[in-house]
Design goal:
- This protein is α/β, with parallel strands linked by helices.
- It has two domains: about 1-150, SPOUT methyltransferase, trefoil knot domain (Alpha/beta knot, 3-Layer(aba) Sandwich); about 165-224, tRNA(m1g37)methyltransferase, domain 2 (Trp Operon Repressor, Chain A), CATH 1.10.1270.20.
- Helix content is about 30%, strand content about 20%.
- Strands 2-1-6-5-7 form a five-stranded parallel sheet.
- The radius of gyration is 21 Å and the shape is elongated.
- It starts with a strand and ends in a 6-residue tail after the last helix.
Length: about 220
């Protein structure tokens, strides 16, 4: 699977993709992550990528040409399944969306800044708009990293235990059940006896009940 991320601040994405699961996925050849500096596609002498917005108002708008130039170049080299714009007014990222995207081949991610990007980019090129929450960040780089992480970890062979991702919170529309490890008794705080019973059927029923109870308390909206 390949991600091409278009950003005006490529160095912001150095760390998220250079460690842990995402690094492992790249080393195994299961995921490719390419970051493109938007300024390299600007035709201005100063390599500017923004301008004043028509109609007045505060905030600069990211120009159409640099994005178009980069997207067109990438599309001339390969087919893309999605061109995704990370934006607060997009559909909220959920586990079902991550699951869906994990079956794709090539995806372009657009990182906005300032007041936003020229609407024509969204109209002409963007196939999907995704938000990571109802709040505003300084740019789309962190949301892009979140999206890539949520998708790449689902690719077969990325996790050492592939069944782990299947039991994560939200995979079954429920939050995950509590988890414990050794010691079984820490300063009088004990692991539930059922987890020490060795009866896997009983343990799975307990986990389901715990997940349901946690979801009812914390995210009852998921049960609706």
């Amino acid at each position: 699977m390949r991600f091409d991320i278009i950003t005006v601040l490529p160095s912001l994405l150095d760390s998220p993709f250079a460690h842990s699961i995402l690094l492992r996925a790249q080393k195994k050849g299961l995921a490719e992550i390419h970051v493109h500096n938007l300024r390299e596609y600007s035709t201005h002498k100063q390599k500017s990528v923004d301008d004043y917005q028509y109609g007045g108002g505060s905030g600069m708008v990211m120009s159409i040409e640099p994005f178009a130039n980069c997207i067109e170049k990438l599309k001339s080299e390969r087919e893309y399944d999605e061109v995704i714009f990370l934006t607060p007014d997009g559909e909220t990222l959920k586990q079902t969306i991550a699951n869906e995207l994990s079956s794709k081949g090539n995806i372009i991610l657009l990182c906005g800044h300032y007041k936003g990007i020229d609407q024509r980019i969204r109209d002409i090129y963007v196939t999907r708009e995704i938000s990571i929450g109802d709040y505003v960040l300084s740019g789309g780089e962190l949301p892009a990293a979140v999206l890539v992480d949520s998708v790449v970890r689902l690719l077969p062979g990325v996790l050492n235990d592939e069944t782990s991702a299947l039991s994560d919170s939200f995979q079954g529309e429920l939050l995950d059940a509590p988890v414990y490890t050794r010691p079984a008794d820490w300063n009088g705080h004990k692991v539930p006896d059922v987890l020490l019973s060795g009866n896997q059927a009983v343990i799975e029923n307990w986990r389901h009940d715990q997940a349901l109870e946690r979801t009812q308390k914390r995210r009852p909206d998921l049960l609706r």
